[in-house]
Fold each of these.
Amino acid sequence: MVVHMPSEIGYNKRWHDVKSNLCHIDSYIHCSLCLKDSGDDPYTQKLEVGWTKWGIQVWCREHNANIMHVDFEGAKHPGDESRQQRDEELV
């Protein structure tokens, strides 16, 4: 697994103070096997993300391999399932 550390810019902003349905990704998750296979060539991510009974899991379909499985340890966290409307939906 390759994880890039998030930047410190805006890190102290509270969840309630930002539009959480905009893209706020500071670091991306990649399958290290996909990166190795691609060499210097660009590659397409083949990751699946889903809920498990413990938390959330990232899975590589290409290599049938776990990338990350986060255990929430029974804690509940706020989440935003809304999305921004596309221009054609505003008409």
Amino acid sequence: MSPIYPSGAGGNTPVPLLQPFLASDFIHDEELPRLLKSAQNDGCTVFPLIVGHCTYRLSSLAKFQASNGPDEPLESLNVGQQNKILVRVAEEISAIMNPPSARRT
């Protein structure tokens, strides 16, 4: 089974896609511990993205700032609002993956 979150180069910018399946045993027992360990030990930045109404506030991911509010999952927003959030997340990930010192002038 593939991870619930896509990751950037080197796997250092996971974007957990949170929706009702957050309660599944596989997610709880396999995916979340691996993600949290990477955040703690490897210094990866986590960008939780709430797709659907879920138990985010009760999860171990609640200590991370979600890209959108738990009361406003992507599924409840219009396309323009969704795109605004997705662009902001992409820009934040790009800034991490391509720091100014690594960019060519």
Amino acid sequence: MGDDSGLSELNDYWLEEHVAKRGSVLGYSTGRELRNYLNLVEQITGRGQTIMRPDVLVTCDGTQIWWFEQGKDEPKADEKWAEIMSVGWDREASHPP
């Protein structure tokens, strides 16, 4: 994120080669939390660039998965994945005061 011409090229390539020809879905994976990712998208769009909205977003180093549904602004958490990740997890113990 920071190479505006590269981002534009990626968008064009993805739409022409993968969506149009193969019906592919777009997924991003980031170590960021969802809120930080969405803030980054706002920064990019504020510069006049377009970052394609993914179909799926993996955040927090793979511990959260979000699905973007057509026609909806907010992503939906993958509840099955959240359940899998929560087995044996004590959030309070991992975030001391």
Amino acid sequence: MKQDFSQFKELPAPLPAGERVIWQGKPSFKALALRSFHIREVAIYFGLLLIWRLSSNWSHGVSAGEAFTSALWLIVPAISGIGVLAGLAWLFQRAACYTITSKRILFQFGVALPMTMNIPLGKIANAALKTYRDGSGDIPLRLNDEGRVSYLLLWPHVRPWRLRVTEPMLNSIPDAAKVAAKLAEALTGKPGPSAISLVNFDEVSSSSNAIANSPPPLQPERRRIMSEAIHEPVVPKGGVLAGAALILFALAAVTTVRLTGVGGTHMTLPAAIESRDLRFEDGQHGAVLVFDANDQQLVDTLAPGSNGFIRVVMRGLARERKLGDIGAQPPFRLTRYAGGEITLTDMSSGKQIDLGAFGSTNTEAFASLMNLRSVK
């Protein structure tokens, strides 16, 4: 089938006499975005964060509407991150072009600085193939040249994780099996069905089975041309075990500190200079009523939809009281210290929250309750 090469980049220089173009193509944008830029994994990551945010807000007693509104803030960085990755995938796909000739393979790439890499067919020791459900695939090239190829310079046109011995790769090309057949034809000089049989081995587990029905290669140094399927890179077991051990150690250390207090750092607050005991009750239409626990007078009314931080903190504490079968009568104590720190203490359980850890704006929301006069 004749190809229209006008849709692709021009070659950096005219081909020598007797050399012809066998195939020319670009990576598939969708496949490049999914497999090289991992857009799917990033979307799953933000989806899990969104679920965690919703469940965390719900566990602290936040209403469904407020929990949903709070979780929506994650959508902005999610869309931005995925958009940036998609844009990069489009730029890399637009700048890339692979050309197979009767003498060489040309890689044209580079978004900011266009570059060309020329690989003579004689320097290819092995070419493998991996296809995917959509028909696209990858064809990495193992070179017999001892000269080191830069992994970072070639990325993403390189086989993943082959850092020590870099393998240039035709990445995410459409109709990968047909392209592999054309490459086999160029390498072996055997056109037609014999070339196709060399690359139809996506599920093959060993190279001996892959070439059992294929004709013998023409040259000894090409005995393994198209003879093995790509296997996903194996992460070193030592690194996996070390990472797992580090995670388990961190979990064990945190658990030990939380249960025993051994190894923990305890902050000693300065002398308290002011405190006020408050009670919080639900009012009509979503309002929150704040009372002075000493004289039972109304201090403030938090309008519906306002003072989100106070609502989140108090609903979390109220939920803990409900689980402990504690009523709403015991007060909460706001305390201001000489150093400016402000804490909120549940007098029924002794749990203390350092409000300064949530920022000055959120701390000021509680601090304002300490200065308000009772409404008589």
